[in-house]
Amino acid sequence: MKTHEVFEPGDGRKIAYHNLPARGAGVNAPGVVFLGGFKSDMAGTKAIYLEDWARSTGRAFLRFDYTGHGISSGDFLDGCIGEWAQDAYDAITALTNGPQILVGSSMGGWISLLLARRMPERIAGLIGIAAAPDFTENGMWAGFSDAERAALMRDGRVEQPSEYSDDPYVITRKLIEDGRQQLVLDAPLHLPFPVRLLHGTADADVPMDWTLRLLDHATGPDIRAIFVQRADHRMSTDDDLTLLTETVEEVIRRDAAARPS
């Protein structure tokens, strides 16, 4: 059995994905798309858990790797937020039908918001898991020392230690400069569908203040934040995963209630 398919948008990119078709009552309902984080891939715990949930409920479900991530083509160091958002846009446009509920983890939360701005007619709801909009500017660049900023501009890259790997994070000048063209918290951001923002109080990577800022900045009829005591950035414990699927189901109900009968 194939573990994945490959989608080629036509410009040399090869995007690996797994697409679960809807069945039964799910055929006429919104699908779910998982958008992973920085240097993550579509085989992570949350993506697989959501796919199992979708299979059990008949929902369509799409997970994929951005270019330079997982088993898609490209080098991670050549990528940037705008290009990964384009990967997501192309995948959703080509591989899904009708409205979708976006579930964005960390960087995937930022990409979800970019998609909400670009294709709101295709979005039935949005769930952020430790969403990290504008993190290249408000997290990386803001946290650099003067020496690191000078090295980035001079050498095109700097290295930072990673809590998740023995290899350092390499942050490129392209990532920072492109990120400034993708900011979502510096201009009006209207989200005309149910939005839920999940965040753990023990998250050491994305400050809770970022979720509060997004909650205050965005406008829309149904936006709520849920803070989970002692949950970390991954939010992948059994309780966290149960909360995630419960939240997806709530967004589905809220979307259905808001649609004309």
From TrEMBL:
| Domain of life from the UniProt record | Bacteria
Which Gene Ontology molecular-function terms are recorded?
Answer: hydrolase activity, hydrolyzing O-glycosyl compounds
Which residue ranges does the record assign to the Serine aminopeptidase S33 domain? Answer: 56-170
One Pfam family recorded for the sequence: Hydrolase_4
Which key words are in the record?
Hydrolase
Q: Which PANTHER family match?
A: MYCOPHENOLIC ACID ACYL-GLUCURONIDE ESTERASE, MITOCHONDRIAL (PTHR16138), PALMITOYL-PROTEIN THIOESTERASE ABHD10, MITOCHONDRIAL (PTHR16138:SF7)
Official protein name in the record: Pimeloyl-ACP methyl ester carboxylesterase
Q: Which organism is it from?
A: Rubricella aquisinus
